[in-house]
Write a structure and sequence with these properties.
Elements lengths: L6 E8 L20 E2 L4 E8 L4 E7 L6 H15 L6 E5 L23 H27 L2 E11 L3 E3 L1 E3 L5 E3 L10 E9 L4 E8 L12 E2 L2 H14 L2 E6 L5 E3 L7 H21 L5 E9 L3 E9 L8 E11 L6 H20 L4 H22 L6 E11 L2 E5 L3 E2 L1 H10 L4 E5 L8 E2 L2 H6 L6 H5 L10 H25 L1
Parallel strand pairs: 2-12, 4-5, 11-13, 19-21, 20-22
Antiparallel strand pairs: 1-3, 1-6, 3-4, 6-10, 7-14, 8-9, 10-11, 15-16, 17-18, 18-19
């Protein structure tokens, strides 16, 4: 039975780039960073028994382009002896870190990057691949027998950011009537004596408390969550950003660093309480009667031996989401002509880079769409991998990109596990995955983001249902094996 003992190991490194690197996530902000508010960290947790080995990363980065994250997963899998499909590279999606998604999101490979900037970033990224593989190896070497348990709390920090304007269109703002997910999911990983090894926590709100007027490298509110949770629990904390595509924190795009503490502090408080409610050791509750001056009924836990886990199952599958049809040739030509005219006018007027760089991104997008239309393309489809792992009643599922909260809630509703973490921004970023309402009414997630992510058109209105369908089939694989293992 030794082969089926669950083992866990965790390790962390600092991945803060040199001051002076451009930060990614605001198209208008191309000036160099000026300092460090908080270090950017990468944390790896390895969970394994004799049949499976899952490597989970939490990285303080905006996200990786798909070729880069695939390179990382291959390197990690080779280093620790597991399939790349069992490597989950989560990024918090802080907008105050380096440009690790190349060719989109306004990074140095995308717009206005100097040769020196590009060389420095390429060196940082090349080193990062080796660093993450080495980090996984260290975590793997620290594995010890462990158990895992789940819990949840609530923090009213997230607010739907699809605000309906007076003209009937959507802008990024506050929509108090919109759908949110205030749950704070917590997985606690202990050694066999109940001593904490690691804790995974999860929340669905954009880590963009701090705005584009700040020039300090920062982990944003997830860094606050980790710091406070670790201080209270003694466990190394990993944070996974949930289905936050249409979710902001109540304090959003701020310049006051105290707001970052307030947002992260509320989430951390809920996570800490949930953590201490979880007991990972098998036990029964014994009642005994005694007396002093009064008769007393005493209750205490009686711990017993038991397996570290009953179920450990992983699964992955390819999901495909169609984009809306490309424009006609005439419309594609008109889009490019308009972008060129606007950009030429800005240059003639001596406009600042805060205006010319976003318009340069629009021009780049229009050129690409026109090329695709001329090549005869009518409609594109984006395909990517979704992944899941289940240990007893703790289920983790994850996907690339920026899923709207409706996807995360829909998946959790269909999951049979008692405790579910839904991770967005895992294994790459490539698009927003919007709700039908946003597709119909417009807004950043289906307009400006199409340009920044450099995709030909917005996803179709059925995106939420399609994604939930893909995850339902993934859950079927995890649930079927879970029932089989539980009954054996």
């Amino acid at each position: 039975m030794t082969n089926h003992v669950l083992k866990a190991g965790v390790a962390r490194i600092d991945i803060t780039p040199p001051v002076g690197f451009r930060m990614q996530g605001a198209m208008r902000r191309i000036e160099p960073s000026l300092g460090i508010e908080s270090p950017l960290l990468a944390t790896a947790l390895v969970l394994a028994d004799g049949n499976h080995k899952v490597v989970l990363f939490d990285c303080d980065l905006i996200g990786f382009d798909l070729p880069l994250v695939n390179e990382i997963r291959q390197a990690v899998g080779k280093r620790v002896g597991t399939s790349p499909s069992q490597v989950i590279v989560g990024c918090t999606h802080t907008h105050n870190g380096p440009c690790t998604s190349r060719g989109n999101l306004g990074g140095v490979h995308d717009v206005a990057g100097t040769p020196a900037e590009i060389t420095a970033l390429d060196t940082y990224i090349s080193n990062l691949v080796g660093q993450l593989a080495g980090l996984a190896s260290v975590a793997d070497s620290k594995r010890q027998p462990a158990r895992i348990g789940g819990g949840r709390g609530e923090a009213a920090v997230a607010i739907n950011r699809e605000e309906l304007d007076t003209d009937g269109r959507i802008r990024v703002g506050r929509n108090p009537a919109g759908i949110t997910d205030h749950s704070v999911a917590v997985f606690r990983v202990d050694d066999l004596n109940g001593k904490p090894i690691a804790v995974i926590t999860n929340y669905a709100a954009h880590p963009v408390v701090m705005g584009y007027h700040t020039y300090l490298l920062s982990a944003d509110y997830p860094g606050v969550v980790r710091r406070l949770v670790e201080g209270a629990t003694g466990a190394t904390c990993l944070f996974l950003t949930g289905a936050a595509g249409n979710q902001a924190s109540l304090s959003f795009l701020q310049s006051d660093w105290g707001e970052q503490e307030r947002m992260g502090g509320q989430i951390a408080g809920a996570a800490i309480r949930a953590f201490f409610e979880i007991e990972t050791r098998p036990h029964g509750v014994i009642r005994e009667c005694d007396a002093s001056l009064s008769n007393i009924a005493l209750y205490h836990k009686e711990f017993r031996e038991g397996p570290t886990h009953r179920v450990f199952r992983t699964a992955s599958r390819t999901a495909s989401i169609p984009l809306q049809p490309l424009p006609s040739l005439a419309q594609a030509e008109a889009n490019l002509a308009e972008a060129n005219a606007v950009l030429d006018k800005l240059y003639r007027e001596g406009a600042p880079t805060s205006k010319t760089c976003p318009t340069s991104i629009v021009k780049r997008w229009a050129e690409g769409v026109l090329q695709k239309v001329k090549a005869g393309m009518k409609q594109e489809t984006l395909s990517f991998e979704i992944v899941g792992a289940r240990i007893d009643d703790c289920l983790l599922v994850a996907m690339p990109g920026e899923p709207f909260v409706e996807i995360g809630l829909g998946v959790k509703k269909r999951a049979k596990a008692q405790h579910t973490i839904f991770g967005g921004y895992c294994n790459g970023v490539l698009a927003y995955w919007p709700s039908p309402e946003t597709v119909a009414k417009g807004g950043m997630a289906v307009e400006a983001s199409v340009k920044t992510y450099n995709i030909s058109a917005p996803p179709v209105s059925e995106t939420v249902d399609l994604m939930i369908g893909h995850f339902s089939r993934l859950l079927d694989e995890l649930e079927d094996e879970a029932r089989e293992n539980a009954s054996s």
